[in-house]
Design goal:
The structure holds 2 protein chains of 2 kinds. Chain A is of the alpha+beta class. In chain A, about 35% of the residues lie in helices and about 20% in strands. The chains are: A alpha+beta, B alpha+beta.
């Protein structure tokens, strides 16, 4: 039996070098490695080979064999097969190799980096991870960045976004208040955004008729197609990291808090304006409130090191929560 | 041989042949170093290649592979002059790594990394009408101390930190031999050897109150530190909470051992370095959580709440 590697290489060459698309029968007769099996066995073998080549990125296309389009054949368009000239210089290639190391993607992207190294005609030390030369000895470890490319559904959603395929999925928003309902969402994916350690899908929510951001780790179950590829228009305005930040309500509202000396500096980073020293050694700050529930949660986490002075309703809210938490001890 | 092993070999052949065409006489060792595998495996790939070619497979159709000693050349394979195009996934992965690393280094819009990213973007744009749209921001805002600490790591200079520990709720001054900066989960960390704790520690930069780069230079560590994630130790207390729907956010704040749905809320099991840290977490949950384990945690929560309440009771 012919080696499968040999058959796959021959199939790539035959489909790439043919002037007209090859019918399935022609492939069976002409490409070395097929032929000897019965038709059903051949067909299964060919389907598997075709799928594997496509998964590798080999652009195996179907094309009509006649003007009526009744019969389909196969071919590989050389222009879509060949890597265009990118011409990274040796510094750029080395920088990219370092970036892959820093993001822990050296293994995941080794194949891609090798293609670029071949294109650039560069020496081996940057093309692979194998120790082929002295690593710049004595150099300090470079920053490390965790990109979380193993986030659930990331690959499927990138594909859906690039092919403009609407998707459906179950979504359970957490939200501190937790009032938003869990349920099915139908979304036209516009972009994927990594912000502060998390992946988000930004897209047009068809039910809410507005652009929304969805955290990937809150998607439950699987991501399904909700329409054919190319069935929506990409909006003109680009998507950026800011698109995943919920709008802060009433940004002007602040609360007056008193912070104990050992935590005052941390409160100061959140405060608007400078602090004011109090007689008891504490410092008073004006802190933006934003979402009141989130603000109360933040104050409670300080366990007495931060006290709310005003407004009275927030002070009362914190006191009532503390009373409940203290139980009979108060 | 497994299907995926065959495909890895195919991928290697399709990337390697363009190189050999451009560099006749290249050695097997060089190819192995460049494209992965052993010289023997490379030789096996080339052996298979010699049986491949255009349909007809007669003289002049087959690829010509010559191996003289350990030197290799390939002829009659002009269709493999270029490597296979990058897949979208490969290109996006490379681009994201470049952008993220540029942000981590604060490299800006110039320099080799930015140039490489721009070329990859152009490639993605030319490949399809709608290239994948991805955006990236490592942490916002970037900590003020980042630039100073980056310089300290590069020079191997000991830093003095005034640091507030979240687990012990105390502020200490410590000298740290800096090893590396790491961005993970939306936070920047300085990893290094803490002389106060006499052990390796990760310091979250937003909890650094003051920093000072000293003149003392220390040697580079031999092994790179592991990523800054909380690693529960056996001595840490197991905590079990029942959390109402309003408190679901807490799963983002902890490394949970178990999360089970319970009556619309969650039952969460995790380990805490100190009881105080767990108690303050329960305070933040503001009545939306019930403590199941350990028994002394509920009492600690009540104590902390009662202490904090004192300031409010004279109203």
């Amino acid at each position: 039996m012919t080696d499968r590697l040999e058959r796959l290489i021959n199939l790539v060459i035959a489909l790439r070098e043919t002037r007209v698309p090859l019918a399935v029968g022609e492939i069976r007769e002409r490409v070395a490695g097929y032929g000897q099996d019965d038709y059903e066995a051949f067909r299964r073998m060919f389907e598997r080979d075709k799928a594997d080549l496509r998964a590798l990125g080999v652009p195996v296309e179907t094309a009509p064999l006649d003007a009526w389009g009744d019969r389909q054949g196969y071919r590989i368009d050389p222009d879509r097969y060949d890597l265009p000239e990118i011409a990274l210089d040796s510094e750029e290639l080395a920088a990219l190799a370092l970036a892959l190391e820093a993001t822990d993607l050296a293994d995941a992207a080794a194949g891609g980096l090798r293609k670029l190294a071949v294109d650039a005609g560069q020496p081996p030390s940057v093309a692979g991870r194998e120790p082929t030369g002295p690593q710049d000895a004595g150099a300090r470890p470079r920053p490390r960045v965790d990109l979380g490319l193993d986030a659930p559904h990331l690959g499927a959603l990138m594909e859906a976004q690039a092919s403009r395929t609407p998707v459906r999925f179950g979504y359970a928003p957490a939200g501190r208040a937790g009032q938003a309902a869990a349920g099915e969402r139908t979304v036209e994916p516009h972009a994927l955004v990594h912000r502060s350690g998390r992946w988000y899908l930004v897209g047009h929510d068809r039910d809410r008729r507005a652009r929304r951001a969805f955290r990937l780790d809150r998607i439950s179950g699987s991501v399904r197609r909700a329409g054919p590829p190319g069935s929506f228009e990409m909006p003109e305005e680009p998507v950026g990291p800011a698109d995943v930040v919920p709008e802060a309500p009433a940004p002007d509202a602040t609360a007056l808090v008193a912070a104990q000396p050992d935590v005052a500096w941390q409160v100061a980073r959140r405060a608007r304006g400078g602090g004011e020293a109090l007689e008891d050694g504490r410092t008073a700050y004006h802190v933006p409130v934003g979402d009141p529930e989130a603000f109360v949660t933040w104050v409670l986490g300080w366990a007495g090191a931060v006290e709310v002075r005003s407004p009275p309703e927030l002070r009362a809210e914190v006191a009532s929560r503390l009373r409940a938490l203290a139980g009979g001890r108060a | 041989m497994s299907a995926s092993a065959t495909l890895r070999r195919l991928e290697r052949v399709l990337t390697m042949v363009p190189w050999v065409l451009d560099h006749p006489g290249v050695t097997l060792d060089d190819l192995a170093a460049r494209f992965g595998g052993t010289p023997r495996e490379i030789l096996a790939d080339l052996d298979v290649l010699g049986y491949c070619g255009l349909p007809g497979y007669g003289g002049g159709d087959l690829i010509e592979v010559r191996v003289l000693g350990d030197r290799v050349s390939v002829h009659l394979a002009d269709y493999f002059r270029r490597p296979l195009r990058l897949t979208v996934r490969e290109a996006v992965t490379l681009l994201l790594a470049a952008r993220a690393f540029a942000q981590a280094l604060d490299a800006g819009e110039s320099g080799p990394l930015a140039a490489a990213a721009a070329k990859l973007e152009a490639l993605l744009g030319s490949d399809s009408e709608h290239p994948p749209a991805v955006a990236l921001e490592l942490s916002s805002p970037a900590p003020e101390s980042l630039a100073d600490l980056r310089a300290a790591v590069d020079a191997g200079r000991v830093v003095r930190l005034v640091y507030r520990s979240e687990s012990k709720a105390e502020t200490t001054t410590r000298e740290v031999e800096p090893w590396r900066l790491a961005a993970s989960g939306g936070h920047w960390y300085l990893q290094g050897w803490c002389r106060l704790a006499d052990g390796p520690r990760d310091f979250r930069l937003d909890r650094v109150r003051e920093h000072e780069v000293t003149g003392e230079v220390v040697a580079t560590p031999e092994a790179a530190p592991s990523p800054p994630i909380y690693r529960p130790g056996p001595e840490h207390t197991e905590v079990v909470l029942e959390v109402a729907p309003q408190g679901r956010w807490v799963v983002d704040w902890i490394v949970a051992d178990r999360v089970e749905p319970r009556d619309g809320g969650l039952r969460i099991a995790f380990r805490a370095a100190t009881l105080d840290w767990a108690a303050r977490l329960v305070l933040r949950l503001a009545g939306h959580a019930r403590v199941l384990e350990p028994p002394d945690l509920a009492a600690r929560v009540a104590d902390l709440a009662a202490g904090a309440l004192a300031a409010y009771e004279h109203d």
